[in-house]
Amino acid sequence: QVQLVESGGGLVQAGGSLRLSCAASRSILSFNFMGWYRQTPGNERELVALIRSGGSTNYADSVKGRFTISRDVNKNTVYLQMNSLKPEDTAVYYCNARMRSDYWGQGTQVTVSS
Length: 114
Known about the structure:
Blueprint: E1 4-7, E2 10-13, E3 18-24, E4 33-39, E5 46-52, E6 57-59, E7 67-72, E8 77-82, E9 91-98, E10 102-104, E11 108-113
Parallel strand pairs: 2-11
Antiparallel strand pairs: 1-3, 3-8, 4-5, 4-9, 5-6, 7-8, 9-10, 9-11
């Protein structure tokens, strides 16, 4: 059983920064990729950023240039650095890891005030 534990969410003013962390219970290199998704009430979960086992990354157009996904393989942790935050970034952010199955964290709330 894979466990993903997120941390780092909170309340921040527009233009501010937050860093989310996702600690995995096993080597993150064992996953095909890991990513961050976000969801707002009444909407589907959307991909924000992902990092593949080889290290390549992808970002949603809405966060390109502002968010950076990275990892520390020694700590089995993936990060999402979020800069220049906007009110529309407000959401519950979920960590995801994909191997043969999808694994999800419990989610962490990010609220950006205007």
